Amino acid sequence: MEKLMKPAEYAKELGISRQAVYAKIKRGILTAKNVDGKLYIVVDKEAKKEKTPAASEIKKTTTSKSATANPADKQTDYKALLDAKDETIAVLKDTVKDLKESNKQISTTLRSEIDLLKEAFHEMRTLYVHQLGHTENSEAIDVEEHEATPEESLVEEAWIGIKKFFKQLGITKEKQQEKMTKALKKAYKKGDKRLAKEKGKIKINTAVDYRDLID
Questions:
Q1: Which of 3, 11, 71, 149 is buried deepest, with most CB atoms within 10 A?
Q2: Residue 33 — very low, low, confident or very high, per pLDDT cuts 50/70/90?
Q3: What are the residue ranges of helices labelled H in 146-201?
Q4: Alpha carbon distances (Å) from 125 to 1, 130, 138, 151, 165
């Protein structure tokens, strides 16, 4: 019958280090099983019972061995102990190597993540600056669009056409009107600010004086 044991429990029961247990798993000496993401050692209970002698027998055997022990046996025990230590050292070296590789991979990943963050920050900054500039331009356009158009200005400043202007001044004679019209057009072409043009027609600002053009 199979029994599942944690590596730490198995190591404690056999009196060896956990690194030695992992080394045995790695080399195929021990059978391991992954259950719910956790590693367990597969132990055969029946085989363990057969291989494991009773406590009284172990005690007797130990007593008899100690009584008949010779230097050669002690040397063998020391050799087995040294072999176990060598195995543990080898496992530790492998563990250190694996940790170094893991740290190297983590460092590389972190550097990549930092580079990605820098690029993302640069892109966001560029977009923000572009958006800010676009907003300022939009506000400037809105201000320009809300400025008074020539038509609005003409209405606010009471701009009138030439015929209405003649009517207000009481100029009825055709020749006088023609002369006055030529004078107004000539003044407009010269850049006289008192005159404006709307839809191809001269407009006159009634808020200013035109005696210099009439006389």
A1: 11
A2: confident
A3: 150-156, 162-169, 174-189
A4: 66, 9, 20, 43, 60
